[in-house]
Specification:
The chain is α/β, with parallel strands linked by helices. It folds into two domains: about 170 residues, Rossmann fold, CATH 3.40.50.970; about 150 residues, Rossmann fold (3-Layer(aba) Sandwich). Helix content is about 35%, strand content about 20%. It has eleven helices and 13 strands. It has a seven-stranded mixed beta sheet with strand order 2-1-3-4-6-5-11, with helices on both faces. Strands 7-8-10-9-12-13 form a six-stranded mixed beta sheet, with helices on both faces. The protein is globular.
């Protein structure tokens, strides 16, 4: 099985091979370095005219990419650490997501911004954050998160080649060396897939009884949730259903809840959202609000699990205690039932 890193690298190579309009811009991309996490490795050697190493200016490279997209190209921007995406917020919020509407749908901005998020690498408070929640409510921006259940490279390739609008593509750092899970690796689970370009997957323990709790998680948190649901089943006889979206935003229109989550909650009536970002105003808060609105008093309990609203420490033990882990998930589920 390929790793998430290998899959993303393959997806980039395939996009470059299939469409000459694809360009890559970012810091330290050129071989032999190939980017801080090596996702871009080999591209500058094979496509030297279409891989541009840039100055340290996130606003600048996103602005250049926006102009290229307006002119009919399909640029990919690599922001070295997700923490620095805040430096490009003005370009994202006030420019590239608005142009289609401002110009009466006469222009498109097919731009993908790739960036690694998350902690557990000891990089400290300015290089370990999970900041996608800052962008989830921006109209006109699609936010995707790679996971091990849906081929990350294919997800990236489709975002680059098939999406006509801007995309923020999140890659959790700890996922890079994790294997992409095939059917053999998931043989102990019943798996449902919504299909489509940006699928949602649902997992249940194969042969298990009626699930009592719906777990909703994305990215690396989905890995930890999957581990927790196995332990909960075999250690506590508590069975869960895990819903893993690839697309975080846009949400369903008019405040509606995603159909997959709706179907799951009709069975469990209990929801636990799990995210690595800080607790207040996160992805989970929006999901929980929509679930409460959709079911209006019918749910037995709703909980959110996230990092505290504090800077992430560089100390490994403190970082591990702060960020949601398997034990945190298990404890939360046990309290819910």
């Amino acid at each position: 099985m390929p790793t998430v890193l290998e899959s993303l690298n393959r997806g980039l190579h395939e996009a470059f091979e299939q469409d000459k309009r694809v360009y890559l811009i970012g810091e330290d991309l050129l071989d032999p370095y190939g980017g801080a996490f090596k996702v871009s490795k080999g591209l500058s050697t094979k496509y030297p005219d279409r891989v541009w190493t840039s100055p340290v200016s996130e606003a600048g490279i996103v602005g250049v990419g926006t102009g290229m997209a307006l002119r009919g190209l399909r640029p990919v921007i690599e922001i070295m650490f997700g923490d620095f995406s805040a430096l490009a917020a003005d370009q994202v919020i006030n420019s590239l997501t608005k142009f289609r509407g401002m110009y009466n749908k006469q222009v498109e901005v097919p731009l993908v911004i790739r960036t690694p998020m998350g902690g557990r690498r000891g990089y400290g408070p300015t290089h370990s954050q999970t900041l996608e929640k800052l962008f989830l409510g921006v109209p006109g921006l699609r936010t995707l998160a790679a996971n091990t259940l849906s081929d990350p490279g294919e997800l990236l390739r489709k975002a680059i080649l098939e999406d006509a609008g801007p995309v923020l593509f999140i890659e959790n750092k700890i996922l890079y060396l994790r294997p992409v899970l095939d059917s053999a690796a998931l043989k102990d689970f019943d798996v449902e897939d919504t299909g489509g370009a940006f699928p949602t997957r649902t997992l249940r323990i194969k042969g298990g009884p009626h699930p009592k709790v719906t777990l909703a998680a994305y990215g690396y948190m989905a890995e930890l949730a999957r581990e927790a649901m196995v332990r909960l089943a075999f250690e506590n006889e508590i069975f869960c259903e895990l819903v893993v979206p690839s697309q975080l935003a846009p949400f369903e229109p008019d405040g509606n809840l995603d159909e997959t989550l709706t179907n799951s909650l009709q069975k469990t009536a209990r929801l636990l959202t799990i995210e690595e970002g800080s607790y207040t105003l996160g992805w989970g808060a929006e999901v929980v609000a929509r679930a409460a609105q959709a079911f209006l008093g019918q749910l037995k309990t709703i909980q959110r699990l996230a990092a505290p609203d504090q800077p992430i420490p560089a100390s490994a033990p403190l970082e591990e205690a702060m960020l949601p882990g398997v034990e945190h998930i298990m404890t939360a589920v046990q309290r819910m039932v």
